[in-house]
Every structure is written in structure tokens, then in C-alpha cells.
Write a structure and sequence with these properties.
Blueprint (H helix, E strand, L loop, with lengths): L2 H45 L2 H16 L7 H18 L3 H24 L7 H36 L3 H8 L38 H22 L1
Helix pairs in contact: 1-5, 2-3, 2-5, 3-4
Length: 232
């Protein structure tokens, strides 16, 4: 085999390798965009639960206030939630969306904190349902967030490797942004069904049905049995 043929073969191999690198970079960019579209879709579906949450808690707050000369702390916190929700809806890239979503979660947390110190506030079934829907949205977001960040990290590492970094610059590819939000990690604070606030049933603690009386008696008996065992 002469030198010219060897050179042709080498050039062909290099060209094929370059083509594979470029194709891989473009495929990873598509994967990142697809993962972000799924994550962003979950974000926006979760935000659809916010208006129902604000409306339900507003009704509970109005019932608790009855006669109020000025807006309560709960009312002001709900206004912050509505404003933060609009900011989240307008965020487009992962970095801005993560920051906006964190502000929304913090605003919702302030609502929970305000209702807990409001002496006459009782969470209605509508509020609890909206709270559970927010929690479900956060749970779904937590899973999709991990998937998106994994895809973004793989694409970033590929762009930084040689020789892909040479082609990434020529193709005008930028490193994917990660969605670094704490919203999903803080979802435990965003669900009244976890028992953080009294419900309508809790508002009447002296009313116990036969099943509740039986359960209470059984629990007391179990405690007495364990106490006797420890004494022996």
C-alpha cells in the first residue's frame, strides 16, 4: 500500500470520526432540549394548581377574619404567591426558572407559616386538596429534575472533551444550564395533609365517634401492656 492510499484512508477515518463527534453533539443537544421540555411542562402544570390554592386559602382566610380592618398576614402572603407564580410562568431557561420556582415555593411556605399563627384559621377540604395537588406536582418535578440534570451534565462533559470541544465552539453550542432548584426538595413543607395545620375535624377535638373511642382505648391498653413488661 503506497503512502497516498494510506493518507486517503487516514483522512477518511478522521472525517468519519469528526462526523460522529458532530452528530453526537447535536444528538445530545436534542436530548437536553427534550428533557427540558418535559421538565418545563411539569413546572407549568404544577403552576396550574396555584390559582386554586390561592382561591381556597383566601376563602378560609375570609372566614377566619370575618370582620377585618386591614389585610391579614395570610392575605399578604397569598398576594406574594400570585406574584411569584406569574414570575415563574414567564421564566424560560432552566437557570431563571429554578430561581423563580424557589421564590414561589418560599412564598407558599410563608402562607403556611401565616396560617399556623392565625388563631381562627381552619383549612377547608378545598385548601387541603389544593395543597395535596401542589405536593404531587413537586414530587413529579423532583424526579424529572434529576433526569434533566443528568442529561445536561452528560452533554456538558461531552462538549468539554477533546476533540468535541473544538466542534462545539464552531457549531456555536453553549453548555446546557442545570435546573438547580430546591423547590422539590422542600416539598415536605408544602402539604397540609401531612398534619402541619388543624383540619375541620381537628377544630372539634371533643367530638369523637365510636371508632375513635375504640382506637384510643386500644392504644391506651397497648401502652399499659408495654409498661407492665418493662416493670417486670
Amino acid at each position: 500500500m503506497n503512502l497516498s492510499l494510506i493518507a486517503i484512508v487516514l483522512v477518511g477515518l478522521v472525517a468519519a470520526l469528526c462526523g460522529l463527534v458532530v452528530a453526537n453533539l447535536k444528538a445530545q443537544q436534542r436530548d437536553v432540549q427534550a428533557a427540558w421540555n418535559r421538565l418545563d411542562g411539569l413546572r407549568r402544570r404544577g403552576m396550574e394548581a396555584v390559582p386554586a390554592f390561592v382561591a381556597a386559602v383566601s376563602q378560609d382566610e375570609a372566614a377566619a377574619q370575618r370582620v377585618a380592618s386591614s389585610p391579614s398576614v395570610v392575605h399578604r402572603a397569598l398576594d406574594d404567591v400570585a406574584a411569584a407564580s406569574r414570575a415563574s410562568a414567564s421564566a424560560e431557561d432552566p437557570h431563571a426558572a429554578a430561581a423563580a420556582d424557589d421564590r414561589l415555593v418560599q412564598a407558599i411556605e410563608r402562607v403556611y407559616a401565616a396560617t399556623e399563627v392565625e388563631p381562627d384559621f381552619v383549612a377547608s377540604p378545598a385548601s387541603r386538596k389544593a395543597s395535596a395537588q401542589l405536593d404531587a406536582a413537586m414530587e413529579a418535578l423532583a424526579h424529572e429534575q434529576q433526569i434533566y440534570n443528568n442529561v445536561a451534565t452528560i452533554a456538558t462533559n461531552a462538549q468539554r472533551s477533546f476533540p468535541a470541544l473544538l466542534f462545539a465552539k464552531r457549531l456555536g453550542l453553549s453548555e446546557p444550564q442545570r435546573y438547580e432548584s430546591e423547590a422539590a426538595a422542600r416539598r415536605a413543607a408544602l402539604d397540609w395533609t401531612r398534619g402541619s395545620l388543624p383540619s375541620l375535624a381537628d377544630a372539634s377535638p371533643h367530638v369523637m365517634n365510636p371508632q375513635m373511642l375504640w382506637a384510643s382505648a386500644m392504644a391506651d391498653a397497648a401502652i399499659d401492656d408495654r409498661t407492665d413488661e418493662r416493670r417486670r
